[in-house]
Write a structure and sequence with these properties.
By secondary structure, the chain is mainly beta. It has a single domain, classed as Jelly Rolls, CATH 2.60.120. The chain has one helix and 20 strands. The strands form four sheets. Strands 1, 4, 5, 7, 12, 13, 14 and 16 form an eight-stranded antiparallel sheet that branches. The protein has an eight-stranded antiparallel sheet with strand order 2-3-6-15-8-9-10-11, with no helix packed on it. The longest helix has 9 residues, at 214-222.
């Protein structure tokens, strides 16, 4: 297993020089292991508070009819482009509209059991849309890394780092994402009524205020915690040389 598949140590911060840190406005890696909160490691203060009784399990949080309240402002800067990436174990038995992440009036990414598809609900260009990606069938008991890449004229779904569908049914649509004041953002359930619950485990959730490009999405799938690995910039090394000193090399290494 890659070192970047291992969760960062508790308290470790993001390396903002890393390409996959750019535009990150919410990052819940769920590495606390206990307690009733999950911290937003993006540094933007979107601390998640347990609602009901989500259960800590190895590497994540198990949801049944509960949720995590991540506050009302996490999507405020996502006005024209948006990427939501999360890792889950899907399990049957939840609501037919089980929410992975939800904020009313927008946005919401959820799984609709009746049509067995990942769906998007939100306002685009001032209108509300509730549409499915066709190529998004999930299997009971399986782990999935899911990324939605949303913006003006494109609404793409990636599963396992690969494009599953490049347009919502009836889409794509153009225009900005309007989150509005509404209710707070929730992980694992519906923000407005707590009856549309996801049944399964969430291992991490990331929100970006930009659309990651496909190569970045594939990278994030392979190494989901790579931006938490700090880099050390080493000074130029000098050796004695005729007439003075001269640099022999400049290098950069990852700190293990």
């Amino acid at each position: 297993m890659s070192a970047f598949h291992q969760k960062p140590l508790l308290g470790q911060l993001i390396n903002w020089a890393h390409p996959l840190a750019r535009g990150l406005v919410g990052a819940w890696v769920m590495n606390e292991g206990s307690g009733s909160k999950v911290y937003d490691l993006s540094g933007n203060g979107h601390e998640g508070v347990f609602v009901g009784n989500p259960l800590w399990v190895p590497n994540g949080i198990d949801f049944t009819d509960d949720a995590i309240n991540a506050g009302g402002s996490v999507f405020d800067s996502c006005t024209s482009e948006l990427t939501i990436a999360f890792s889950v174990k899907y399990r049957t038995g939840g609501s037919v509209h089980g929410r992975f992440i939800d904020k009313y009036p927008a946005p919401s990414i959820y799984y609709h059991v009746n049509d067995a598809r990942v769906r998007f609900y939100g306002t685009i260009g001032g209108n509300s849309w509730d549409n499915a990606w066709a190529g998004s069938l999930l299997t009971n008991g399986q782990n999935y890394n899911i990324t939605t890449r949303l913006g003006s004229g494109f609404q793409e779904l990636y599963i396992g780092g690969e494009l599953a569908d490049n347009a919502l049914s009836g889409g794509p649509y153009s225009g900005a994402y309007s989150t509005g004041p509404g209710v707070n953002a929730y992980l694992g359930n519906c923000a407005s009524d707590m009856t549309r619950n996801f049944n399964g485990i969430i291992y991490y959730t990331y929100i970006y205020n930009r659309a990651l490009i496909p190569s970045e999405i594939a990278w994030l799938d392979r190494e989901p915690y790579v931006m938490f690995e700090p880099y050390i910039d080493r000074a130029m090394l000098y050796v004695a040389a005729a007439g003075g000193v001269a640099p022999i090399r400049i290098f950069r290494t990852r700190r293990r």
